[in-house]
Amino acid sequence: MKMLDYLKRIGITEGMGVNISSLKLIQKQHLLTVPFENLDIHIHKKVKTDIEFLYEKIVCQNRGGICYELNWLLAELLKCIGFEVKVLGGKVLEEDGSYFDHMLLVVELDDKEYLVDVGYGDNFLEPLLFETDIVQMDKKGLFRVDKIDDLHFALKKYNDESDDFKTEYVFINKERQIEDFQKRIEYFTKSDKSIFKKNLFCSLEKEYGRVSLKHDKLIITENGSKMTEGITSSEKYIHHMKDAFRIGLKFEERKKLEALWQELT
User: Fold this and answer.
1) What is the pLDDT of residues 5-63, one digit of tens each?
2) pLDDT at residue 208, as a whole number
3) Do residues 171 and 88 lie in contact, with contact meaning Cβ atoms separated by under 8 Å?
4) How far apart are CA 73 and CA 160, in angstroms?
5) Within this chain, domains 3-199 and 200-265 share the same CATH topology
6) What pLDDT is stored for residue 262 in this prediction?
7) Dist. CA 191–CA 67, nearest whole Å
8) How many CA atoms lie within 13 A of 152 on its CB side?
9) What is the architecture of the domain spanning 200-265?
């Protein structure tokens, strides 16, 4: 892996040290520059987790991915810099869920642990302290980590409508390997019940909002306001893919995506 090229991909041109400032900057810039998208599930009918493949896709081809791709590659970058990184699994779906629904990271630094996550859509912008029962303020809202038992923890985010903290996902504080996630990756790739297979999406964090592209609409939120634009053609869809996310697909990939867009509409 060419570490400097990876850092450049996420908009960082300065050297990174093993410190909290660097960790915060890396997560934030990753979220602001690398989209959460599931295009490969529809175009190639698979998700690959080989580091060399992911580096080529995300860094060289300016693509994004889902949690297994984004957090797995980020873990490699952090290790190259010198961080101590542990991969964990989390449960997102209440029904038919598994503790391998989601991949997240824990980084140990200066006798503290931090939750790091660049693969969960609208989530915390900077790493959270892995400490329980304290409210942590982030630009994306208020967060709390609750202890369920010695192994299970819940990441919660404050919800204005309910005036309470809502669970985002539950995770197990046990180190995992990429092989542990393969069965769940297969489910999300192949099953007709899979949220990733049933939906086509591309989403990118903004410092004070988010931009999301679904098959039929572009949604931009900023400072609490929302703008929605309908997508009326596959050409319009491809245009927004390039304009909002800087994703330029190969000819064959674009044709497959255009055909899929027609099917979904």
Assistant:
1) 999 999 999 889 999 999 999 999 999 999 999 999 999 889 999 999 999 999 999 99
2) 87
3) yes
4) 34
5) yes
6) 86
7) 18
8) 8
9) 2-Layer Sandwich (3.30)
d(CA 100, CA 88): 8
What are the domain boundaries of the chain?
A: 3-199, 200-265
Dihedral of alpha carbons 236, 240, 241, 246, sign: positive
The least confident of 3-7, 181-185, 202-206, 259-263 is 259-263
Strand ranges of the sheet holding 36-37, from the earlier edge strand across to the other edge: 36-37, 201-206, 209-214, 217-222, 225-230
Q: What is the assigned CATH class of domain 3-199?
A: alpha beta
Structure tokens at 243: 């304009």
pLDDT at 126 over 80: yes
Per-residue b or e along 42-71, where b marks 16 or more CB atoms closer than 10 Å to that residue's CB: bbeeebebeeeebbebbbeeebbbbbbbbb
Contact between 165 and 136 under an 8 Å Cβ cutoff? The reply is: no
Look up residue 17 and give its amino acid: G
